[in-house]
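Lecture 7 notes: from sequence to structure.

We start with a single chain of 124 residues. Read the sequence below before looking at the structure.
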Amino acid sequence: MDPFAILVPLALACAVLGTIMGNYRNASGTGLVLGLIFGPLGLIAMLAVDRRPQCPTCRARINEGGSRCAACRQPLVWDDSGPVTPEEADEVQAEELQAERQRILAEPTAAEKLGAAARSFLKK
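Now the structure, written as tokens:
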């Protein structure tokens, strides 16, 4: 019997199974590649891959968009980098507001701009 008649369907089956396994761990592309290239060994390696975000408090894996950690019941707020606690979200927001205030205070006012323009005009 031709070895490719066994290897090709096995590789395709492992690729499909790897994709399914990876889908639950936010790593479906990794599962596809591992299953396709390494076959059953790739499926075993896929058990170690988990790209789900971690709870910032207890480091348990959580599903995307969850409002609470299933392990420690900590409420979660999602930002661009992933889940954060509400306290951390408040701190980040306060830092952003402070940076915006500093930027606004550093800009010259309209009166200062007009005064500078008038002084330069009178010097001519």
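The CA atoms of residues 15 and 30 lie 10 Å apart. Keep this in mind for problem set 3.
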